[in-house]
Design a protein that fits this description.
The complex is a heterodimer of chains A (238) and B (426).
Chain A (H helix, E strand, L loop, with lengths): L1 H19 L10 H4 L1 H4 L22 H13 L5 H7 L4 H12 L15 H12 L10 H5 L18 H13 L10 H8 L2 H12 L13 H6 L2 H5 L5
Chain B lengths: L1 H14 L5 H34 L2 H4 L13 E4 L2 E4 L16 H10 L14 H4 L4 H13 L11 E2 L8 H9 L13 H13 L23 E2 L6 E2 L15 H10 L9 H9 L6 H13 L16 H17 L1 H4 L17 H4 L4 H9 L24 H11 L12 H7 L5
Helix pairs in contact in B: 1-2, 2-6, 4-6, 8-11, 9-11, 12-16, 16-17
The chains are: A mainly alpha (238), B mainly alpha (426).
Chain lengths: 238, 426
């Protein structure tokens, strides 16, 4: 009887201990697991409704992503949630994260279905493929590639993004609202030439195009010169 | 150095076997002395750089993405906004015209080159404890960095604090000038730790309750609201907060230099201190700090709060929080709040979760974050920001739940508490 009670107590203690110390959560040792803080907003699932603002980052050029991560961290591109997340990250880790997202091959969702009046579409197409030499506005395609899928290594693609995001970025370059327009940069100079009507037309038209094709290899000589600070921005700031 | 060696070799070749051997030997001797002085100078600069790291001069004297040590960082306090000065050796905009003596007076007496009293946003109340030798080494290092021409805007200090002579009064009340005096009853290691924590490390600047006049109120590192941020610096002398009396020396060292241990993680401004400063500590200094921190006398334990049986309404409130926990948090922090040690912190028994002041846990839920990247933790795991995902009411329910689950006990958090934690820069 005594033994029975003791054994009972022993078993009870074991169970109690087991209940007190649950197994640690099993965490995969992968970069995908480490960037969950990113994918909660930049995830694979369709977030077109509520979270339309968050741009797709999968498959973007590594150099572009790396630059943006450092701009957010160092205050050259302002978005508070990104700045807080990246505050204490090394360049090396940011480069690895950029590589990870650049290497993701996820099919693009179908483009936004937006009704664009023909005049607005024509305005956008002209700016995209011909620009406006009188105002020194180059064609978007001159830098962002004939397919508008970007140019190695730093120029982003323009397709597969939501119109809200595109309009906000162009508006930021235009007015300096995202700090971006306040620093010397060829994109700020170009966007400052655009009217709000043109920015709207571009954002809608670009968001309505299906994303396909490849990034271009290099900028044309003239644009490489005009946007030489892109390479400077790539310098280490700390 | 390499040039010097090559010269020596050339001299040897020219003079060998020509009867000038003795002269050659003498010259070699002179050059070796010269080389030795040079290497001492290099070592001293390295020492100065190390001490500047320990004092984390960079942390305040550099803006985000700005030129190192060129100042310009805006520190918002209840007295107004302080703008940190340029401390690069630029003659016009930096401290290029400062002498070693000027620098010593700033560090030790809290006075500028022109004799004006400095505002204690510059932690001279701590730096006064730094030895002359260490201050001189830091100054020599600051002389060696590239001069940056950068004028920073003036402070914007509110009336009446902008009336500088008031500082005489403040100093009479709160400033005790004098280098650290070792406690002969304690070990050399303990004294080294105390010197670093109380002096260069200026831990007291945050980990002490500040009174309404902005003065640290305690000799020993305690607790307080951190200047220019909406974070709470937990007490280092309280078991319920960040006191380390129960910890092993090794774990304290790990937290200070790696940023993460099995049960704790540096976040917010303290994560930044690890990135900018503490991760560079020598093993000896990190250990000394740990020995001292562990030995801090425990402040009076807060009276034990007796929690009454939870009313039905509260249980319902917490149940809402539990649902949110299952949906958003459980995958990483576990069904019992057990977490994954060293990766995703356990929430059961986590002091950051249960501390009386819930500011930090609310901020972490809202903003997420990564612990600092350090040599021993180069690829940290992160916490997503939830401010865009769930509303203030839901954050309040969620935080109230984790403060009262799995044996945790803490006050309930309201949407107003959550709202107050939003909107700050850091």
């Amino acid at each position: 009887m005594k033994y029975f009670i003791l054994t009972g107590l022993f078993l009870f203690t074991c169970f109690a201990e087991a209940a007190e110390a649950p197994q640690p959560v099993d965490v995969p040792n992968t970069l995908a697991e480490r960037v969950k803080a990113c994918t909660i907003c930049h995830g694979e699932e369709d977030k077109a409704s509520r979270d339309a603002y968050y741009p797709r980052i999968a498959g973007k050029l590594e150099g572009y992503l790396y630059n943006q991560l450092r701009h957010f961290r160092d205050g050259r591109r302002y978005y508070q949630p990104m700045a807080i997340l990246l505050e204490n990250m090394s360049d090396t880790y940011l480069r690895e994260i950029a590589q990870y997202f650049a290497g993701l091959e996820i099919p693009y969702p179908p483009p936004e279905s937006i009704v664009i009046p023909p005049a607005q579409a024509a305005l956008a197409e002209k700016l995209v493929y011909s620009g406006d030499p009188e105002r020194e506005v180059p064609a978007c395609s001159a830098c962002h590639g004939q397919d508008l899928m970007g140019t190695e290594p730093f120029v982003p693609g323009l397709l597969g993004l939501h119109s809200t995001y595109l309009a906000a970025q162009l508006g930021g370059w235009h007015s300096g609202g995202l700090i971006r327009g306040k620093i010397a940069n060829c994109m700020a100079d170009i966007a400052k030439q655009l009217t709000y009507e043109e920015i709207n037309a571009l954002a809608k038209w670009l968001a309505a195009q299906p994303a396909s094709g490849e990034p271009a290899n290099a900028l044309p000589a003239e644009m490489a010169q005009r946007c030489a600070n892109l390479a400077l921005e790539n310098g280490d700031s700390r | 150095m390499k040039t010097a060696l090559m010269l020596v070799a050339t001299i040897k070749r020219v003079f060998s076997g020509t009867g000038y051997g003795l002269i050659a030997l003498l010259m070699v001797g002179v050059m070796e002395i010269h080389a030795a002085t040079e290497s001492t100078a290099v070592q001293q600069l390295a020492r100065g750089e190390y001490l500047a790291r320990v004092g984390n001069c960079l942390g305040c004297h550099t803006t985000k993405g700005g030129q190192p040590f060129a100042g310009g960082l805006r520190l918002t306090t209840s007295f107004g906004t302080f703008v940190t000065p340029n401390i690069t050796p630029d003659d016009e905009t930096g401290i290029g015209r400062w002498s070693q003596e000027d620098f010593w007076r700033a560090m030790h007496e809290g006075k500028s080159r022109d004799g004006r009293l400095l505002y204690p946003a510059f932690p001279y109340t701590d730096y006064t404890k730094v030895t002359r030798e260490d201050a001189d080494l830091i100054f020599a290092y600051l002389r060696s960095i590239p001069a940056v021409s950068q004028s920073n805007p003036p402070h914007e200090i509110r009336f009446p604090y902008n009336y500088r002579p008031l500082l005489y009064v403040w100093r009479a009340l709160f400033f005790k000038q004098g280098i650290y005096e070792p406690d002969s009853t304690k070990s050399e290691e303990w004294n080294r730790g105390a010197y670093l924590v109380q002096g260069l490390g200026h831990c007291n600047a945050c980990h002490t309750a500040r009174n309404v006049l902005g003065a640290s109120q305690d000799e020993h590192a305690s607790e307080g609201q951190i200047m220019d941020s909406n974070w709470y610096a937990p007490s280092l002398t309280t078991r319920q907060e960040a006191g380390s009396m129960d910890w092993s020396i090794e774990e304290i060292v790990e937290l200070l230099t790696v940023g993460v241990t099995q049960r704790a993680m540096m976040s917010g401004p303290m994560g930044t201190v690890v990135r900018q400063s503490l991760q560079y500590l020598t093993p000896e200094d990190a250990r000394a700090m740990a020995v001292y921190l562990k030995s801090l006398p425990e402040s009076d334990a807060p009276p034990e709060v007796r929690y009454p049986e939870m009313p039905e309404g509260v249980r319902k409130y917490l149940a809402q929080g539990e649902k949110l926990y299952e949906k958003h948090c459980q995958d990483c922090h576990g069904a019992s709040g057990q977490g994954a040690p060293g990766i995703y912190p356990a929430l059961a028994g986590n002091r950051s979760v249960t501390m009386a002041i819930p500011t930090n846990v609310i901020r972490i839920v809202l903003n997420g974050g990564y612990p600092p990247t350090t040599a021993a933790n180069p690829q940290p795991y992160g916490m997503p920001p939830f401010q865009q995902i769930i509303r203030d009411e839901e954050v309040a329910q969620l935080v109230s739940f984790i403060r009262n689950a799995w044996g945790n006990r803490g006050s309930l958090v309201t949407p107003v508490d959550v709202g107050q934690s939003r909107g700050s820069r850091h």
